[in-house]
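Bug: token stream looks shifted between consecutive jobs. Job 1:
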Amino acid sequence: MKITTILFFLLYINIINAQKLFEKTDLVDEFGDKIGEVQRNVSFGTFSNSATNDSDLRVHTILNEMPEFKSLDEYKEYLSQQLKENGYSEKDIETTLKYAKKTLETTKNTKGSIQFKLYEYKDKSASMIGIETGMISIKTSDGKKIRANLSSPAFLGGNVTITGYKELTTGAMGVKNQIKYGYYDWSQSDIYNEIVNAKGKVMVVIAFGGSTYKFTLE
């Protein structure tokens, strides 16, 4: 299960390009030192659950676009560095690199991911402990509506993450298998494309565990 979790993480490692809804933002550590950059959108909205209704919500939406690798060695080097920066042990990294050839094929089919960091009352991270299913819906500026199912991989790391794929692929790590076993909904790719290529604001609704989060990317 630990290796499966790491393999899903591989889908979310990133290289950054400018997009309309996102601004380049410095990433700093606990000492305030710059350690990288992200493409981020900060928006505000409301959330409701059994204990509150239409309370203040702040959302950091992070765009992660997948780089293209010229060789397996280049992918391994990049992967190792990313896992180190995210706190994985040397043992976990070594084990994960054994699967690099297989996961590289998945990576080639991945456009990227979008992470939604939800802050209830503007500064309290939303709890996703034990969450396995949910739903994300969007409405574009031209009125187009798309809804996608979320399953447990989407809640890794305490954020809601959707993944955009290029095409339906077969094999053990293929998209068709992920859909078959309920790990993925192809509509996530449609939502990813709409947000990345948005020509105007995008309304977003995320629901899981009895809570509903509403906000607008603009």
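Job 2, same session, no restart:
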Amino acid sequence: MKQHELGPSTGARHKRKRIGRGLGSGHGRTAGKGSKGQLARAGRHIRPGFEGGQNPLIKRLPEKRGFTNIFRVEYDTINITVLNRFEADSEVTPQRFVEEGLVKSLRKPIKILGNGELLKPLTVSAHKFTQTARSKIEAAGGMVEEIDSESGTKRH
């Protein structure tokens, strides 16, 4: 066997099917594109979601657009002004918030927001504090205890 006699084995290479080359070819006339219309034309392009002019599904269901972050944590929020109802030098815990009716239950973690002024020194325990809330509680002579959501332990 010589080098010029080498070639692919029989059946390894196929000839390209030439569509639209006469009625006898088996794929002549419409060349497998059906009848006339946008889909039969050269360079056809239909954008994803196009439904032929009908109001598309993405517009019919606007509330389904976007996405929902499954890891988002929702907090029950309490403004710092509300903390003035507790006695001075007392310890304010999430359980006390439920007793006072500030939150319905302890299902959601509690976040203290810095809106308003705190007039008494308090030891406040919550799951999260804004920076302004933390500074206002400490400025009033109080203490901040952050509760770890997973373990329930307190951090100062």
